[in-house]
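Predict both folds.
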Amino acid sequence: MTNRIDQPHKLDLVGNPVRISGIGTGHEATLQYRVGDGHDEVTGHFTVGGGSGEHGQFQVQADVGRAAFKLDRLLVQVFEKSPKDGSEINLVSVPVIYGPRIVKGYYGYREHKVVKGDTLSSISKAFYGDASLFNRIVRANPDQISDPDKIIPGQVLRIPIGS
């Protein structure tokens, strides 16, 4: 028996609530979820399938607004508990980036396609009005930016937006 997380994707920029969807099955049609950073976590459960081995679609909203996350990167996990011993089985995990840790009042992001002459400071100035806030862009794009002094024309960067 397998479980699958279709959303969010690896290193997606997410907010609160964290919306989790996929396909799964569980003992007595129950699956568990966990969203955490290693310091704090939010857990819950939901029903999926028919309860006797059928796979079904699921969508759940994990309200993480009260969690005291210390890191930008969270791990979204879906699993079932073994009916034999209560251990976690059929665990699937997806790492994501938590936007509210990056910008206050996070509600989404814009995409910016890097052009010749762009720097992270100039992009930051354009979106935030402050060149020194370029680290927000770095934090939101760990798979795109390994060196803040090296961005490449054609890269599409996520620019987290908040209130």
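Second protein follows, with its predicted structure tokens after the sequence.
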Amino acid sequence: MSKTEIDRVTTEFYGAFDNRDGKAADVDRIRRLVLPQGVIVCTAPAFTAYSVEEFIAPRERLLSDGRLVEFSEWETSEETRIEGDIASRFGTYRKSGVLDGKPYEGEGTKTLQFVRTPDGWRIAALSWFDRP
């Protein structure tokens, strides 16, 4: 059951950025999936550490102001290890959309740290890097 729930939370996380077919991205769901004190770090192309709110704000703007449309991001491989009430997931992902009127594609690696809370599995931390 734990792996199934972690798979669901991960899929929901990636899906939060989807604005294909004119639908609005639901980045607000990040607030439910990631602990309020969670840490989010991008290591490349530039190292940046975010709070949950610092992570959400620019993505919400970018996905709703018309600059990035038809965007989606999805996991392409993963390895999950669960030990009691903690879990770690290491995976690769791809993304695509239209940025400023031009096709946009990319890929990278994410690692997510999960904890089991009274409300189910939540993301405590995540880190990623985009491949050039």
